[in-house]
Design goal:
Length: 423
């Protein structure tokens, strides 16, 4: 098989490494890819939003199967474009990717189908939002309706913060057009858990749980980011939680989308909050999480391509997903200043060590090749992942490996998976 992956981050590097392991794959392409992905796939200089060019490339090269890694092209309708041209592609169509593309849509869907989530109100007019906040209980959560690179969420502890948040999202358009509409949500407390799943429109198969760390600084301080590290499995995702979620959240979501005439094929990411009143949905994503993919995919025993093909062909019920009995921790190495302003083009040293060691991975997120050298090319630069017999061993190994890598302005959180210590 010839396989094309669309995207350029750490998630796509994880997808590329998993695809490369499949005996089905004879040739692997990635558009546009990055320096790390280029070591396992042929990188093609076509942007993720250039749908017609990507489809034309897939036709010209007789690509058998395309995997869409990123949210923007999915929400923009890349799957529809590929399908119209008779190309096999993994990911939800535009009318299903709205599950991630619009916070208001997903909240309304959960309300209609009694899927547990936080209470909320939706606003198109900042004046109405401000009037509502005058009577709302603090703290509240403000969410830009559209895609905002995982950063369009503000937790406001006071009325003043909330008013400033409305201005930032809806008037100053800090997150662009994503803030034309805004969701105001009750603030929930509890453990956060991420659960990825494969879906074929009617059947859902749950993958191993994970827990992300969104804030930029230690102790969950600083700005929201795309994710500074993660671990899998989550010890807080118990058998009881799993049973509840299967009954009231997972299949209910798949059935709701089908009932709405939006059958979902691809990956649904469930962001869950384990509250005192039981698990509730924080958010949906319509693709693999990043960096969740970097700890979940290395532990999956299945041939990823076989599972994805089963999803596209509507026969996921024939597949059972299996995982290694171990754990993984990912520590993101970022450029200091992320997610606001940061330097690019710094040479990266120490990567060769990962080629010689088992159970260690270095996923490239923001890297490029310059004069034959790998240099930094983004805010999140690398995701260093290690597997261990348990979470504590995996965490120790991940931080050990993070020290192998050197580049100017290297920054990381030092408390990824610290919650494990409380067990």
């Amino acid at each position: 098989m010839k396989v094309l992956i669309v995207g350029s981050g750490g998630r796509e590097h994880a997808l590329a490494l998993s695809a490369a392991k499949s005996p089905k794959v004879e040739k692997l392409y990635c558009a546009p890819g990055n320096a790390g992905i280029g070591q396992v796939a042929e990188c093609v200089p076509i942007g993720a939003m250039e749908f017609e060019k990507l489809a034309a490339f897939a036709k010209e090269q007789a690509v058998d199967f395309t995997i869409i890694g990123m949210d923007d092209p999915l929400v923009g309708g890349i799957v529809d474009v590929f399908e119209e041209k008779g190309l096999k592609v993994f990911g939800p169509r535009k009318n299903a990717a709205i599950l991630e593309g619009s916070k208001a849509f997903s909240k309304d869907l959960m309300k209609k189908y009694n899927i547990p989530t936080a209470a909320y109100e939706t606003f198109d007019d900042p004046k109405e939002a401000l009037a509502y906040l005058e009577t709302a209980k603090m703290p509240v959560v403000l969410k830009a309706d559209g895609l905002a690179l995982g950063k369009g969420v503000l937790i406001c502890k006071t009325l003043e913060e909330a008013k400033e948040g409305v201005k930032s999202i809806m008037e100053d358009k800090k997150f662009g057009a994503a803030g034309n509409r805004m969701v105001v949500e009750e603030f929930m407390t509890g453990r956060e858990v991420s659960v990825l799943s494969f879906v074929d429109g009617k059947t859902i198969r749950i993958l191993s749980s994970a827990q992300d760390h969104k804030r930029a600084k230690d102790g969950d301080q600083g700005l929201n980011t795309g994710g500074m590290g993660t671990f899998s499995p989550s010890p807080f995702y118990t058998k009881e939680v799993d049973e509840f979620c299967h009954k009231y959240i997972y299949q209910a979501t798949v059935d709701a989308m089908a009932a709405e005439g939006r059958p979902f094929v691809g990956v649904i990411f469930f962001g869950l909050m384990l509250t005192e009143d039981g698990p509730k949905v924080l958010e949906y994503n319509a693709r693999f999480g990043d960096p969740e993919a970097q700890v979940v995919l290395p532990r999956m025993k299945n041939d990823m391509l076989e599972v994805m093909q089963a999803c596209v062909e509507g026969r996921l019920d024939e597949i059972q997903i299996a995982f290694e009995d171990n754990a993984a921790v990912c520590v993101v190495l970022a450029s200091d200043g992320y997610p606001v302003a940061y330097e690019k083009g710094c040479p990266i040293e120490g990567l060769e060590r990962f080629e010689k060691t088992q159970d260690y991975y270095c996923f490239h997120a923001g890297t490029a090749l310059k004069d034959g050298k790998i240099v930094t090319n983004g805010g999140r630069v690398l995701g260093v992942t290690a597997k261990g017999a348990d979470l504590k061993e995996a965490r120790r190994k991940a931080y050990e490996a993070a020290e192998w890598v050197r580049f100017a302005n290297k920054y990381m959180r030092h408390d990824i998976g610290k919650a494990i210590d409380e067990l």
